[in-house]
């Protein structure tokens, strides 16, 4: 009898030791995003997939937690402080406001990897792209603005004015609007902006462009993208073609987009997270950009917006939504 009890006790001790060892080997990654929409959700999935493919499986070897700030900068700050208090191995922050909140809360004590941040230097996340130093690095989604203007003028050769709704409180949105305006005006095309400080303001902002513009262009401004259906509605009602900076918006109704695959951006981000979990210092890893772009078109939406896409453009598209 005593032998059975001893054996059971030893077995329990071994199981406890094994569980402790497994827990000790696991890593904790906290991930936050300023808002949820298809592009940013795809980036988040890319991070998680890379970690899983390399042995960090959620619930087993990985303690993974995601929280959305629901478009509220104040909530982004609260999430960042909560995450820092939990002392994870890495914090991943998607989009500029969440990244700024995470970096401010972490104060260099915990590695922060940003993703889908347009201009990390202007956002004061890092001082430079190469060997940024400190405990911050990540992946930028700086848009090829000249190519985007080319897409619009290819589809609408007679366009003279382009409307751009944007959130003036979002650093990346301001950088993109200013950059696009500079390029467009150098080619004789006027840019009319419409301010939308929150997703609830998007419909009214876009309506203010009706009668003033030949096309509407949406960058990767998270506030505008989160309410993209409002932009599409105005485009269809007023027969103004809508172009986008992310391909995920084409399935939501944009006539065309030349953009990144945000899942790929997430995978790049995931590789950086993996490197840090395996011992690299965040500050020694260069900030990365994305070079490859894909053209997606939506022929049905374009027609409803009064635009007939050329056969050449449709043939060139990697994806055609009908």
> What's the total count of β strands?
12
Tally the helices: what do you get? Answer: 12
Poorly predicted runs are 1-24
Q: How much helix is in the residues?
A: 40-55%
Structural class: alpha/beta
Largest sheet: 7 strands, mixed
Cα radius of gyration in angstroms = 23 Å
What is the strand arrangement across the widest sheet?
A: 7-6-8-9-10-11-12
Q: Distance between the terminal alpha carbons, to the nearest Å?
A: 74 Å
Q: How much strand content do the residues show?
A: 15-25%
What's a concise summary of this model?
By secondary structure, this protein is an alpha/beta fold.
Q: Can you give a write-up of this model?
A:
The protein has helices spanning 2-25, 38-53, 73-85, 96-106, 145-155, 171-186, 202-207, 222-226, 228-238, 262-277, 299-304, 311-316; strands spanning 27-33, 62-68, 90-94, 112-117, 136-140, 161-166, 190-195, 215-218, 242-246, 256-260, 294-298, 319-321. It has twelve helices and twelve strands. It starts with a helix and ends with a strand. A seven-stranded mixed β-sheet has the order 7-6-8-9-10-11-12, with helices on both faces. The chain has a five-stranded parallel β-sheet with strand order 2-1-3-4-5, sandwiched between helices. The relative contact order is 0.14. The protein is elongated and about 60 Å long. Mean pLDDT is 91; it is low at 1-24. It is an alpha/beta fold and 322 residues long.
């Amino acid at each position: 009898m005593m032998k059975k009890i001893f054996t059971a006790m030893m077995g329990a001790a071994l199981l406890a030791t094994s569980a402790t060892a497994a827990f000790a080997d696991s890593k904790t990654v906290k991930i936050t995003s300023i808002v949820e929409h298809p592009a940013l959700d795809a980036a988040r999935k890319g991070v998680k997939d890379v970690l899983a493919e390399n042995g960090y499986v959620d619930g087993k070897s990985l303690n993974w937690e995601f929280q959305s700030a629901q478009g509220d900068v104040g909530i982004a700050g609260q999430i960042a402080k909560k995450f820092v208090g939990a002392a994870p191995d890495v914090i991943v922050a998607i989009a500029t406001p969440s990244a700024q909140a995470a970096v401010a809360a972490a104060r260099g004590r915990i590695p922060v990897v940003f993703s889908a941040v347009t201009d990390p230097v202007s956002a004061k996340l890092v001082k430079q792209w190469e060997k940024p130093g400190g405990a911050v690095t990540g992946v930028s989604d700086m848009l090829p603005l000249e190519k985007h203007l080319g897409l619009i003028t290819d589809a609408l050769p007679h366009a003279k004015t382009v409307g751009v709704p944007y959130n003036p409180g979002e650093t990346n949105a301001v950088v993109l609007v200013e950059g696009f305006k500079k390029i467009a005006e150098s080619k004789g095309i006027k840019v009319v902006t419409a301010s939308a400080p929150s997703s609830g303001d998007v419909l009214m902002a876009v309506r203010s462009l009706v009668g003033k513009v030949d096309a509407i262009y949406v960058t990767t401004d998270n506030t505008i993208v989160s309410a993209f259906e409002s932009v599409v509605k105005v485009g269809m009602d007023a027969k103004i073609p809508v172009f986008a900076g992310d391909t995920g918006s084409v399935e939501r109704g944009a006539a065309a987009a030349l953009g990144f695959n945000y899942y790929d951006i997430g995978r790049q981000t995931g590789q950086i997270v993996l490197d840090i979990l395996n011992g690299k210092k965040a500050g020694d890893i260069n900030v990365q950009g994305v070079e490859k772009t894909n053209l997606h078109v939506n022929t049905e939406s374009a027609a409803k917006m009064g635009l007939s896409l050329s056969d050449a453009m449709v043939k060139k598209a990697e994806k055609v939504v009908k």
